[in-house]
Amino acid sequence: MRRLLIAVTLGSVCACGLISGASDLVVVDDAQDATSDTGATAEAGPVDIDSGTFEPPPPSCNAPSRCVTAPSGWEGPFAVVLSDAQGRGIQCPPTFARSWERSGATTADASAPRASCTCACGALTGACAITMNEHDDSACMDAPSKRVLGVGACVPRASGADSWHATTAVTSAACAPDASVTVPPLGGDASTVGCVPTAPEGCAAGACFPPLTDGARLCVRPAGIDDGASCPVDFSDEVKLASGLEDSRGCTVCTCPASPSCSFTYELHGKANCLGEVPSSFSDTNCHAPSGIDAIKLTASRATGSCTPTGGTPTGTVKTIGDSRLCCAR
Fold first, then answer.
1. What SS3 state is found at 314?
2. N-terminal to C-terminal alpha carbon distance within the chain
3. Per the confidence metrics, is the pTM higher than 0.90?
4. Bridge partners for 17 per DSSP
């Protein structure tokens, strides 16, 4: 079985990263044992290969953002914007997306078209760590000395080393989501809009809220049927909303989980300064044991691969809703 090497590490994270040259593509054949340049077969000491699905580091909610949770029995929280006295159009603050909006119309259009959604991923960007394993025997069988190589640096071989093999680890990989959301208008201006963070992750509970801009308030509303309970302590300011249409049409979040691998090339040199001779060059994780080696040089290293667009599915409805209320932080 042949497979691309995929490294294990810490990606909501993405389009394809191009591979420039077949010599840079790292491929392993599971049906064959790694064989050194001396012809020895490493049967008892398999080459270390970092493989698996790349997992990005867990998101975090860092200041000035903070985690905000709706109390039990309440929905939200939302960043809410109310229309001003002049009835001018309103919209969500930067870094927020619309969850719902209210208008003064009283008849819902059951045939209101769904939102139009697109979700794509940009080119993958990332990096890899390449570790050189240096062995005292000629078949990569004994315990190696290890060091992470920097691109372009000529480093002396470990004392007594007679064979070498590389291992890889993806240290970062991501693709930028490229999404669009188009909600067909219903007619009339919105009187209230409820917004949610575009990057809510990073909290054990609730959502990560960036600071609100002027004109936006942090609010919750009763979940389900309003039983008339008093507003929660942290959201003690009650705001009445008149009956009308509530439009929650939108799109699910577009994310780009990454599937990266490491592409690299290193050289084994017969001179300590990596100059003046044609080196042995490798782009794999097999065991190699050319004679007369004095230095090692990593000449190229990058993360390649692609991301899978996930999300961007129409969601939400238009419905008539009676008088209701919000509870907002003061």
1. strand
2. 62
3. no
4. 305
